[in-house]
Each structure stands twice: as structure tokens, then as C-alpha cells.
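FW: tagging you since you asked about this chain on Friday. Here's the raw sequence from the shared folder, copied in full. Didn't touch anything.
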Amino acid sequence: MSTNVTLLIVMGVLFAVGIYLLLERSLTRVLLGIVLLGNGVNLLMLSTGGRSGLAPLYEKGTDPAEYSDPLPQALILTAIVITFAVTAFMLGIIYRSWVISRADVVADDDEDLRVSQQSPFDFEEDSPVPEDTTEFEGDEAVLASNTETNTDPGEARA
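HL: got it, structure written out here
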């Protein structure tokens, strides 16, 4: 099986531009990035489907190696439907954002900025732990008396 090099280059460009657009703050560019990534995935599944062959319908006397695999075709159709649904959802989000704030750009959240500027030191997690962590008062005396009386481990079993 030989894959077309032009198809691989087109897939690489679609993935690169799609990821670049996903990292933008504009929701319209994010939508275009999702669409480009979906098309890149469709081309990827098309190229992994193998060589083209006969329709995957059974005909008597046809060698099974001549049929094309129907699974990549089904996966591509599913990916098209999923990309369409995500596109419709994103269009709804973009429209709602435009109606409410007349802006297409996602702004920084004030709380996220405040949290990102805090010190990474957490008093409860980063404070030194004392050597003695017992809660009970007489435990040291009980442990010391047990170690003094039982010097031989086999002696306690007998």
C-alpha cells in the first residue's frame, strides 16, 4: 500500500493550521480551527483505509481481496456528523457571546489572574512536619517498655 505524499502534506497543513487557530482567543478562529482539524482527521482516516476497491457489497464470484474496507468509510461519516454538531454548538456559543458582549474574543477571567499571581507556597502542605506525630501522651513510654522486655523476637512466641 502506497500513500499519496500530497495527501500527507495536505493533512499536515490542515493539522498545523487547525491547532494554530485553536490557540487563538477569537471564537471564530477557534471554530475554523475545529473545522480544519475535523477535515484533517477525515483525510487521515481516508488514507488509512487502504487502496480503493469494489463497493463493500457482496457479489458472488468476487475475490474478497478486491473489496474495500467499509469501516474507515463509516468512521469518516461519523466524524463528519460529529464535526457538524461541534460546529453548530460553537456557532451557538459565538452568537450568544456576540449578543451579550458584542465581542468575539474570550477575555481573561479576573479570578484566574488573581490565582496565577499567588505565591505557590501553601502553609498546610509546605510547612515542616515535626518528628513526633503521635496524638497520645503515654505512647512513648509504652513503646520503650515493650522494646526493653522483649529483646528476643522468638521469646514472645514461646
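FW: The longest helix spans residues 70-101.
HL: agreed, and The mean pLDDT is 81.
FW: great, closing this out.
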